Amino acid sequence: MAWTPLTDLELGGKRVLTRVDINVPVEDGRVTDITRIDRIVPTVKHILAAGGTPILLAHFGRPKGKVVPEMSLQPLVPALEDAFGTGVVFVADCRGPSAEAAVGALSSGQVLLCENTRFHAGEEKNDADLAAEMAKLGDIYCNDAFSAAHRAHASTEALARLLPNCAGKLMEAELTALEAALGTPKRPVMAVVGGAKVSTKLDLLGNLVEKVDALVIGGGMANTFLAAQGLDVGKSLAEHDMTDTAKEIAAKAASTGCELLLPRDVVVAREFAANAPHEVVTAEDCPADAMILDAGPDAVAHIKQVIDRSATLIWNGPLGAFELTPFDAATNAAAAYAAEKTAAGDLISVAGGGDTVAALNQAGAAEHFTYISTAGGAFLEWMEGKTLPGVAALG
C-alpha cells in the first residue's frame, strides 16, 4: 500500500493538521498514563523542528456528537506541554471561526490542541462538510493515529482526501511493522493467538491460517478446539456451540499447510483464583470437576520448538489466565523465549491487541519484541485482512 511518510514532505511554514490518539486515562483532571502521548512526541517534534505548526485533532471518550464537558481535551494540556517541551494552546472547537482565529494567533514553536472532534455529530458520520471545515485549518494532513484508522470518521478518512497527506512517525512504525509481519514477511511465520472466545476472533483465525506456517491457539479458545476434538474439558471456559466452527478452522489449516498447535498438556484447578491448588495433566485427562487455566510445560516446550524454526512471530493474546499466578507461567515462559530470540537477532516479533501488551509487560518481554502495537481494534482488523479506511485514505 502506497503512503507518504511525514519526513518526505516540506513542512517549513506549513500548518500540519495532525490526527493523533490521546484518548488517555484521566482522574481528577490529571492524566494517569501518558503512554499514548509519549508515542506521538516524535511526530510533533519533527514538525516543529522542520518549521511547521502542529495542529492536533483528536477524540476523547464517546460523547456521541454532543458537547460533554467531562470529555474535553483541555485537561491534557499540561501533560502535552511536558511531553513536547513547548507551549500548547487549546481552542474549544475543531472547526469554525474560533479555531481559525486560534491558528492565526499561534506563535512560532507552539502547538495547537483542538477540542474533541467527537463533540460534532458529523465526526463519526464521516461528514464531508465537517471535514471541509477542519481542512481550512491546515495546509497538510498527517495521520498519526493508527489506533483510530479502522474508523471511517471525518478526521481520519474524509479529511485525508482534502489535503496533501502523509503518515506520521507512529503510523509509519505501525504500518512498517505490520507489513513485515503479514504483508511480505520473512518466513517461516508463526502466530500465537490467545484469549477467551473463538467467536470474537473468527475472522482473525480464518485469515491467519492462510497466511502463517504455524498457529498456536491458547487461552479459553484452546479449550473450545480441544472440545471440538472430542476431549472432555471439564468446567473450563469453552464455547461448546462453536465446536463445529473450530473444526472448520482446523480443516482449513490442514488444507493450507498451516500447523495448528493446541496444548499437549494443561494446568487445571478447581477454582478460578490466584494460587489455587492445581496440577498438570495431559490435554486428554482434564478432570470433570476441574477447569483448564493455563497451558502446561510440555505445551510451552512445543511452542519454543516452533519459535526456534520461525523467522517471524505475530502475537495476540495470552496463553492462559495470565492475571492470576501461577496461571501466567506459560505466557511468561513463551514470551520470554520469543524476546530472547528477538534480542539475539533470530526472530522478528510483532505483538498487539487486547490484553497482549499487559501480558507481555508482565512477562518482562515487551521491551525486547521488535514492535508492540497499542492500537487494539485497528491491529486486529489489519490481522483479519480488512482494509482500514484511515490507511486507505493515505494512498
Provide key terms for this protein.
Rossmann fold; 15 helices; 2 domains; six-stranded parallel sheet; 395 residues; alpha/beta
Q: What's the N-to-C terminus distance?
A: 7 Å
CATH class of the largest domain: Alpha Beta
Radius of gyration: 23 Å
Relative strand content: 15-25%
| Overall domain count | 2
Report the average pLDDT across residues: 95
Number of strands: 17
Report the uncertain regions. none
Major sheet size, sense and barrel closure? 6 strands, parallel
CATH architecture of the largest domain: 3-Layer(aba) Sandwich
Classification by helices and strands = alpha/beta
SSE layout and pairing:
Layout: E1 15-19, E2 26-27, E3 30-31, H1 35-49, E4 53-57, H2 77-84, E5 88-91, H3 97-104, E6 111-114, H4 121-124, H5 128-135, E7 140-143, H6 154-158, E8 165-167, H7 169-183, E9 189-193, H8 202-211, E10 214-217, H9 219-228, H10 243-256, E11 259-261, E12 265-269, E13 278-282, E14 291-295, H11 297-308, E15 312-316, H12 329-343, E16 348-352, H13 356-362, E17 371-373, H14 377-383, H15 389-392
Parallel strand pairs: 1-4, 1-7, 4-6, 5-6, 7-8, 9-10, 9-15, 10-11, 15-16, 16-17
Antiparallel strand pairs: 2-3, 12-13, 12-14
Helix pairs in contact: 1-2, 8-10, 9-10, 11-12
Fold and architecture overview:
- The protein has 15 helices and 17 strands.
- With 395 residues, it is an alpha/beta fold.
- It folds into 2 domains: 163 residues, 3-Layer(aba) Sandwich (Rossmann fold); 199 residues, Rossmann fold, CATH 3.40.50.
- Helix 8 links the parallel strand 9 and strand 10.
- The longest helix has 15 residues.
